[in-house]
Amino acid sequence: MGAPPPGPGASLAELSMTEMADAFRRGEVRAEALVRACLDRIERHGDAVNAVIGLDRDAALEAAAAADKARAGGAEPGPLAGVPMMHKDMYYRGGRVSTCGSRIRRDFTPEATATALRRLDAAGAIDMGTLNMAEFAQNPTGHNAHFGHCRNPWNPAYCSGGSSSGSGAGVAARFFAAALGSDTGGSIRLPASLCGVTGLKPTQTRVSRFGAMPLSFSADNVGPLVRTARDAARFLRITAGHDPADPTSAREPVPDYEAALDGDLRGTRIAVCETWFLEGADAPVVSAFEAALDALRARGAKVSRVSAPALAAVNAFGAVLSRVEGAAIHAAWMRERPGDYAAHLSARLYGGYAIPGHYYVEALARRGPLLRQFVAEALTDHDLVATPTLRTRVPTLAETDVDADPENWARFMAVPANTRPFNYLGLPAVSVPCGFDDRGLPVGLQLAGRPFAEARVLRAADAFQRDTDWHRRAPPL
To answer: Residue 292 belongs to a domain with what CATH number?
Structure first.
């Protein structure tokens, strides 16, 4: 269910990704007007949020002018034609600097362009530049010692979530309509939850990782941060599919995810795993989560409580994989330039070198059996699992700054507790806004499904958004 066009005086930047694309296709708005509306938001509020690293203003306006000219000439617009986007600064575009949020790659210029970017280009999207992120995508909060911390647009004293911090904060601030993020332990879903937008981690291998900076070979995922589940469905349709440049990418057929959004949840069975996901959860989070379950029930879903004791092992083995593989990827730089890492990241990488090899092999070997066990416990009799995306209220930047105070480690590491399991298991999961806590910060609802069941996951998220308006709320910048 689309929103009406902005009223008099409202900004075109308020439109969602699909609303922009559809309005452009119908000839109701020019691409240049969409880009200028977003550029105006960045110019007025960009410094307060610190989501943007590299703004390609002239290139974006040239691309918009070309799109307007092509449409005026009768060319058929692509499914994302005219839509302004920016992307996490770890997706390589040939000839453009990609810092990966680090000092080490501050001047790195790749030769090749990421497959995800090429597919978005082919769909007509307008790339306006690059976004702030956690250094080498390795923290869940949005801290960055080299480019400055990204800030939550709802309150700049609070975390934006990471590692796709600029992607989540920028979509929430209406700086652009959509952004690529990456998700190895929750790095799409966390900023989506903390900033009040929609973020999708597809099934492992659903989207090509070619041209994206690696963090963990076994857990990296490519996906979008957007405003709505419908946006995510269209975005995934364009970026998903096998890529010869990434031999690990899946050959599963890519369905029309957007066509499956019918709002009907009758017969849909949703499991709530009270073990792990709700342990120690803050009261405002639980309240918003329970209200979200009621909204899903009202759409026809049946909700049941289950136990999934495998999750403790899932979390432990997932941590082993990401730490060992991250340490391997950074081995040369850690030998040659250890002082160029933030202190907390250096400590994390050194920890990876201390994990015995047989622990890593065991973590790989247990992945399949633990996936089968979790499916048996939670998904054999259910279609989806529902959890809060974050167990706690949104934390402040100060109380999760582990470089300033190592005592903050426990709070820092607790942030991705509910998102990490789905990376190790390789399952698709989406986070959608489902309310606000008592401090006025967003709360997220996470929905996960079986491998390659993104259509089912997105259908439930879209049905929820048809009856709620949390995804329409904008921060008061």
So the answer is: 3.90.1300.10
The secondary structure element, H or E, covering residue 62 is: helix 57-72
Whole-Å CA distances, 433 to 133, 203, 458: 21, 21, 14
Q: What is the DSSP letter of 300?
A: T
- Catalytic positions are 88, 163, 187
Question: With b meaning 16 or more CB within 10 Å and e meaning fewer, what string describes 387-398?
Answer: bbbbbbbbbbbe
pTM assigned to the model: 0.97
Instruction: Examine residue 394 and state whether it is found in any structural domain, yes or no.
Output: yes
Q: Which ranges of 152-228 would DSSP assign to H, the alpha helix?
A: 165-172, 189-195
Q: Is residue 303 assigned to a domain?
A: yes
Coil, strand, or helix at residue 310?
Answer: coil
- CA atoms within 13 Å, Cβ hemisphere of 117: 20
Digit-coded pLDDT (tens) for 431-477: 999 999 999 999 999 999 999 999 999 999 999 999 999 999 999 98
- Cα–Cα distance for residue pair 25/381, rounded to 1 Å: 42
Report yes or no on 7 lying in a domain.
Answer: no
In the three-class reduction of DSSP (H, G, I as helix; E, B as strand; rest coil), residue 327 is classed as: helix
Would you tell me how many other CB atoms lie within 10 Å of the CB of residue 9? 5
Q: How many structural domains is the chain composed of?
A: 1
Domain limits at 452? 15-472
Confirm if 438 and 285 have CB atoms less than 8 A apart: no
Residue 308 counted as domain residue: yes
